[in-house]
Amino acid sequence: MIEIKFSKKEIKKNLKVPIENIVIKKSLSSTNTVLKSKANIYGDKTVLLAESQTKGRGRTGNNFFSPRGGLYMSVLLKKDLPKDLLCITPAAACAVRKAIFEVTGKPTLIKWVNDLYLNEKKVCGILAETTQISKNSEKPCCVLGIGINIEKPSKGFPPELCGAGTLFEENETIHPNLKNLLCAEILNNFFEILKKDKSEYLAEYKKYSFLENKNLLCNFGGKVITGRYLNIDEDFSLILKNENNEKVKLSSGEVKIKKWC
Ligand code: BTN
Q1: Reported pTM
Q2: Span 228-246, pLDDT tens digits
């Protein structure tokens, strides 16, 4: 495994958006945790990158396995936040999907609400967290975290992550600059998408939905709901048709694919 490293110079070369501060760390606990704790010092659009994380975090308190070789990035959003902060995760999902396709040609799909899948396996997770700029400030800011499994970890994935996949298989050649190209393209796409009306990226979000034609098992606040995928609503809620043929709308929750019906 050749380690593909981040380089500020290479990222900046490919950026189309003005990003002044890019911080690269070899290893830290979690780029989201660190960036959140420094939100009062760092400026808008600061990007924090890590070659590995010791306490990578996912949604609903899950860990995000973050060995060397993956892409772990967080972006601090202080200005020009969308009115509806819940749009940040779907906007980021569209931006990352597009960037992966443009840079690698890999056709990932979006699994509501914050994951990207390739060949039925999760290859990317997104965690957007809102926080206060400082204790005395009313103003919210957001830390957008993105984790991508690029290649098989040298010791493999832990057994509990049997649903995890990678963008590249062991026999594939990876461009030496891949992480930098991906990082720049994600940022270019994300800030471009944020300028658009949400109806525009909703269409893209639905077009690339991994859940299309699937039977689902959803955990919504501890309640289990089964049903068939119907649509994504204009507020990015998931719409299912349950076993009684009724429409059910979920604004958040965990979704699994039900294989046996
Ligand atoms: C999920 O799978 O539920 C979301 C995973 C998000 C992982 C990224 S990696 C960079 C950033 N730092 C973290 O601790 N988490 C996010």
Answers
A1: 0.96
A2: 999 999 999 999 999 899 9
